[in-house]
C-alpha cells in the first residue's frame, strides 16, 4: 500500500491515476490516453485499490456504479411486471386471489399468481432490491466523495503540461504574455463569477465547484427517504385503519387508543347538475351521465376525558366540527381522517301497520328500529305487537325449521311477529320479510303491512397516522436540492500557464461543454491568449 | 498497516449498520401483519361492559379466577353449537374458580336476550355494542375463545367453534387456579 | 362563456397552424450551404423561431381561456393533458433553441408536437367538471410540473433521434436501421390513428354490441370503427354492420384494441406507401435533413435536456405526486400503475445519468436510451390510462 509520490513532490494515495496536485499521469494507462478521463479527477477510488478480506469484497461489490445501475434496472423491470395485472390490493376484496387471477386472466394469471407477482411490491425480494439500492447508495457515495474532495482540495494552480495537453479543450501558442493582458482576462473571468488563483505566472479560474457535490447531496436525501420508508413499518409509526360510521353514530376512532371519538352527523353525495352548474359542463355531463361533485361527511370530533377501558362509557368533550371531503381530511393530533368510501341507504327502521285483513282497518303503526328493536309495541285498545324473532339478514329457513340470518346487519330484515288484538288476545303469529309473509301456525285475521322504510348512509373514513412523513419530506427536499445543484450548475475550470515561452490553455467542465466553450470564447476572444479548441471528435 | 486496519474496521462498522438496517426492514415488514394479534402468554386486555342483568363486568375483577372469555353472535352457527357445553361446564367449574364471560358482538339487546333464553344461558353475557372490546382483542371470525389464567395472562386462544365437551373441559382445566 | 370556449378552440387551431408553418421555415434554415460551412442561425431560422413562439403564445392563450371558461386548469382529461404536454414540448424546444440555436431541432420537434396535438384532439374535447379527487390546487401544480418535465425530457428524444438519423448507416440493412424504421413507423401509426378516427367519425359509423364484461355482467358498447375484434361473447345489435372476426376475452378492452389494430394497419398502409413511392427507408428519406448536424453537439443537447428535465420531472411526477396522494388518497404511495410507471420513468433516467459516467455510453447508445425514455413516457402518458386502469383512469 505504498503511497505514490509524484515528480512534483506531492504524495498521493495508493491507486491515484492523476496527481492530485499537478495532474501528472501516474499510471501507464493514463500516460497513453489521448484525453484524460477526468471523472473523479483521476483520484484513487478506494474500493478499487484493495481486494483482500470478505468485508472488502462486499464493500467493493456495492461500491461499483455498474452494480448500482444493475440494481436500478432490475427494480425498474420488477416494478413494471407488477403492473401487468392488478395487484392484490386492487382486486375486489370479496374474492380469493388464488382463483381470481386464473379466472380473470387465464393461464397467464395463474402463473402470475403462482410466482407471487400479485403482491410483488411487498415481496421479500422486491424489498431486498430496494434495500440493496440503499446499501449501494451509501457505499458508492462514501467511496467517491472523499477522494474527490481530496483531489479538488489539493489541486495546484500550475498543472503539468502533459495534463493540460490531455484536456478536451486545449490550445498552445508561442507567445509572451504581458501582465496587462492577463489582468484583462482576469477581469473578464471575475465578471463571470470565476474564482481566480495565481501562482508564479500560472492561473486557475474555477467556478461552480459546489455542483460536484450535487450527486452526493441527492444521495443523502434518498438515504433519508429510505430510512423514513423503513421506519414506516415500525410499531407506532404508522396507522392504517378504517372507520365505517353510520349517520347519527358516535364511535371510537380506531388507532387512537380510545382517546378520540367521531360522530357522523350526515353523509352526502352530490352530483353535478346540468341546470345549476356552469353551462360549459353541459355537454360532458350529457355524454357521461352523472359526475359526482362531492362526497362529504359532516363530522364532530370528540375527545374522551375518561380514556377508560374498552367498552366503558366515554365522557365526550367536543373538539371540533368539520366537514370531511375528498382532498380535505379532518386533522387532529397526529391523525387525519379521510373520506374514503361510503355505502348508501342502509336500512335503519321499518314501519308496519297492524291491519285487519278483511276490513283493511289499521289498528296502529309500529316503527321498528332495526338496530335496537323493542320487545313489544303497545298500540292501545287491546292491540299489541310482540317481536318473537328478529332476523336482520334473513336467509331462508334452516334445517331446524328456524329462520336463519346471514349476518347481524339489516340487509334483508325479517320478523316473527305475534299480533295481539281484542279478537285474538293470545296472539297470532306472522312471519314478515321483505315481499313475503308466511303464516306458519295457521291463517291469521290480522297482518303486518309494510308501510315505509327509513334509511341512512354509512361513511367510510380512513384513519391515518404517519409519523414518517417529516423524514420523507426532509429526504425529498434534500434530494431535490442535490439534483438541482448537480444538474443546473456545472464545475468549470480554466488553466492558463506559460512554459518555456509558450502559452498553455486548457479547460474542463463536468458537463455542458457547449456552455463552457461559449463562455471561454467570449473571455479570450481578442486577447493574446489562444482560445482552446475541442480535441474530441 | 495501521491505516489498513483502521479502514477495515470502518468498513466493517458501516456494513454492520447497513446490515442491521436491512435486517430490521425485513423483520418489521414480515411481522407487521401479525404484530397486532394477541398471542398466548400476552396480558389479556382489560375491558368493562355491562351485562344483560345490568351488572358491570370488568375483566380485572376476575383476578385470582380463571376466565373463559367467549366472543359470539347469534347469527353464527358454531356459536350456537358450543353454547350448551359452555353452559354445562360453567356451572360445574364455578366452584372451582373458573368463570364464563360471554361477549356478544353485533346483536341487538332483543336478539341477545332471546338467544340467552332459548339456550337457557345463566352465565353473564355482555353486549359489545361499540365493538371496542372486539377491536382490543382484534377478532374477526366468530366465535373466538380466550382462556385467561388467574393472573390475567392469555393461556389459550381458540378461533372457531368448540365441538366436543371434552375439548371445552380441557380448556377449563387449563385456567383452574 | 361559450364565447371563451370558442376562442380557446380557435387559439389551439391557430397554434397548430403556426407550428406547421414554423416547421417549414426551420426546414428552410437547414438547407445545406454551398460553402459547406457549419450551420449558423440564419434568417429562415429566425423567422421559424418567431413563428414557433407566436404559436406557443397562441397555445398558452388556448390554455388560459379554457381555464377561465371551466374554472380549473385544463389538465383533467386525456385531451387536455396531452395537449398540455405538447405545449410543454414546444416550450422546452424554444428554451433549448435559445441555448443552442439549432434549427434542425425544430424540424423534428415541431412535427412531433403536431402529431401529438392531432392525437389529443381525437379524445372527447368537451369541458368536464372535476370529480372530488381532482378538486385540489395540487391538480394544477402536480400535472403541469409533470408535463413540463416530460416535455423537456422529450427534447432529449428529439436530439437523440436526430443523432440516430445522422449516424446510422443507411447504405445497408442492419439492426439499427430496423429499429429506426420502427420509430418512424410508430409516428406514422399515430397519423394512421388520427386518419382512421376522423374518417369513421365523419362517416358516423356506429355498431352496438351486447357483451359480457369482466365481472361477468351483461354490458353494452358502441364501436365507432368497424370491429375487427369484438368484445367478450359479443353480439352485434346494430344491423348491417361489420361482424368481428374474433371475440376477445373479458379482461381485454376490445374497443380500444380494435382502434389500436386499425391504427397499426392504417400506419402500415401509409408507411408502405411512403416506402413504395420513395423506394427508400424513412430513415434514409429524412437523412438529408441532418446532413450538417454536429453529432457531438446533438449528443450534448440530448444529455442536457435530460439534466434539465430530470429534476422537474422528479419534482412533479414524484414529489408533488406524493404530497397530493397523501392528501387525496390518504397515502403518499400506493403502487397504483401510474405511480409505478412514474417511478419506472424516474429510475430509467436515473440509470441513464449514471451510465453517462461510464465510458462507451455516449453517442449512439445514449441516443437509443433517450428514445427508450420517450417510449416509457408515452407509455405512461397514454397506455397506462387506456390499458391498465387504475386510480388515474378518469380520463
From TrEMBL, chain A:
<keyword id="KW-0472">Membrane</keyword>
<dbReference type="InterPro" id="IPR007816">
    <property type="entry name" value="ResB-like_domain"/>
</dbReference>
<dbReference type="InterPro" id="IPR023494">
    <property type="entry name" value="Cyt_c_bgen_Ccs1/CcsB/ResB"/>
</dbReference>
<feature type="domain" description="ResB-like">
    <location>
        <begin position="65"/>
        <end position="423"/>
    </location>
</feature>
<feature type="transmembrane region" description="Helical">
    <location>
        <begin position="124"/>
        <end position="146"/>
    </location>
</feature>
<keyword id="KW-1133">Transmembrane helix</keyword>
<feature type="domain" description="ResB-like">
    <location>
        <begin position="443"/>
        <end position="520"/>
    </location>
</feature>
<feature type="transmembrane region" description="Helical">
    <location>
        <begin position="467"/>
        <end position="489"/>
    </location>
</feature>
<dbReference type="Pfam" id="PF05140">
    <property type="entry name" value="ResB"/>
</dbReference>
<protein>
    <submittedName>
        <fullName>Cytochrome c-type biogenesis protein Ccs1/ResB</fullName>
    </submittedName>
</protein>
<keyword id="KW-0201">Cytochrome c-type biogenesis</keyword>
<keyword id="KW-0812">Transmembrane</keyword>
<feature type="transmembrane region" description="Helical">
    <location>
        <begin position="67"/>
        <end position="85"/>
    </location>
</feature>
UniProtKB/TrEMBL annotation, chain B:
<dbReference type="InterPro" id="IPR000866">
    <property type="entry name" value="AhpC/TSA"/>
</dbReference>
<keyword id="KW-1015">Disulfide bond</keyword>
<feature type="domain" description="Thioredoxin">
    <location>
        <begin position="38"/>
        <end position="177"/>
    </location>
</feature>
<keyword id="KW-0812">Transmembrane</keyword>
<keyword id="KW-0735">Signal-anchor</keyword>
<dbReference type="InterPro" id="IPR013766">
    <property type="entry name" value="Thioredoxin_domain"/>
</dbReference>
<dbReference type="InterPro" id="IPR036249">
    <property type="entry name" value="Thioredoxin-like_sf"/>
</dbReference>
<dbReference type="InterPro" id="IPR050553">
    <property type="entry name" value="Thioredoxin_ResA/DsbE_sf"/>
</dbReference>
<dbReference type="Pfam" id="PF00578">
    <property type="entry name" value="AhpC-TSA"/>
</dbReference>
<protein>
    <submittedName>
        <fullName>Cytochrome c-type biogenesis protein ResA</fullName>
    </submittedName>
</protein>
<keyword id="KW-0201">Cytochrome c-type biogenesis</keyword>
<keyword id="KW-0676">Redox-active center</keyword>
From TrEMBL, chain C:
<feature type="transmembrane region" description="Helical">
    <location>
        <begin position="177"/>
        <end position="202"/>
    </location>
</feature>
<feature type="transmembrane region" description="Helical">
    <location>
        <begin position="261"/>
        <end position="278"/>
    </location>
</feature>
<feature type="domain" description="Cytochrome c assembly protein">
    <location>
        <begin position="76"/>
        <end position="199"/>
    </location>
</feature>
<dbReference type="InterPro" id="IPR017562">
    <property type="entry name" value="Cyt_c_biogenesis_CcsA"/>
</dbReference>
<feature type="transmembrane region" description="Helical">
    <location>
        <begin position="367"/>
        <end position="391"/>
    </location>
</feature>
<dbReference type="InterPro" id="IPR045062">
    <property type="entry name" value="Cyt_c_biogenesis_CcsA/CcmC"/>
</dbReference>
<feature type="transmembrane region" description="Helical">
    <location>
        <begin position="12"/>
        <end position="32"/>
    </location>
</feature>
<keyword id="KW-0201">Cytochrome c-type biogenesis</keyword>
<dbReference type="Pfam" id="PF01578">
    <property type="entry name" value="Cytochrom_C_asm"/>
</dbReference>
<keyword id="KW-0472">Membrane</keyword>
<keyword id="KW-1133">Transmembrane helix</keyword>
<feature type="domain" description="Cytochrome c assembly protein">
    <location>
        <begin position="269"/>
        <end position="392"/>
    </location>
</feature>
<protein>
    <submittedName>
        <fullName>Cytochrome c-type biogenesis protein CcsA/ResC</fullName>
    </submittedName>
</protein>
<feature type="transmembrane region" description="Helical">
    <location>
        <begin position="339"/>
        <end position="355"/>
    </location>
</feature>
<feature type="transmembrane region" description="Helical">
    <location>
        <begin position="77"/>
        <end position="98"/>
    </location>
</feature>
